[in-house]
Specification:
Order of helices and strands: HHHEEEH
Distance between the termini: 109 Å
Shape: rod-shaped
Largest sheet: 3 strands, antiparallel
Length: 197
């Protein structure tokens, strides 16, 4: 603002010189001062433009930094959601494993009871001198004990389904008696029986 006031003063001085028809030296002095003021004005303008460019550059850097920070926050939020989902999945798997372990424990207890019952029945048979025909339940229990197969009695007609609890892995059984021979089915099932006693 001071530069514009100086320009105004110089302009008024020039007008007064021209109006009064003063000496050429005074006119040169005023023109020199006018040139100095114009030079200062141009320098001030250059300085202001430089400052404006620096401000714009700083604003761009701040805006980019803000965008980068926002993107990092979004990535962190996504990773957090993924971790929460993994923790929830692990919890569900843990619960399923516990339920499976509980079921296997129950089945083991049942097998122990069956084994004890079989041992008791064997002792009774050994002690009994008369030949008796074993009951269907006893035969089924004995077959289950030897073969380790649990049958699915609700499968559709012609389908043989069950689960074989082998010494190392559990294996599902799914055979179609309409497409497979009785000999193949018999051989297949006998091959599952563990021969290690």
């Amino acid at each position: 603002m001071a530069a514009f006031r100086d320009i105004e003063e110089v302009s008024q001085g020039l007008l007064s010189l021209l109006a009064a028809n003063r000496a050429e030296t005074q006119q040169r002095r005023l023109l020199g001062r006018y040139e100095q003021v114009v030079q200062r004005l141009l320098e001030t303008q250059d300085c202001a433009e430089q400052q404006l460019r620096e401000i714009l550059t700083t604003e761009q850097e701040v805006a980019q930094s803000l965008l980068d920070t926002k993107e990092q926050a979004q990535q962190g939020s996504t990773e957090l959601h993924q971790l929460e989902a993994e923790v929830q999945k692990a919890g569900e798997e843990d619960a399923a494993l516990k339920a499976s372990l509980l079921q296997l424990t129950r089945e083991l207890e049942e097998l122990k009871e069956i084994e004890a019952d079989l041992e008791r029945q064997e002792k009774e048979v050994d002690e009994d001198t008369t030949v008796t025909i074993p009951s269907a339940v006893y035969v089924a229990q004995l077959y289950h004990q030897v073969s380790k197969i649990e049958w699915d009695y609700e499968s559709e007609s012609g389908m043989i389904k069950g689960i074989h609890y082998g010494p190392s892995i559990v294996q599902p059984i799914h055979l179609d008696s309409n497409q497979l021979s009785k000999k193949f089915i018999s051989d297949f099932l006998w091959n599952m029986v563990d021969t290690q006693w």
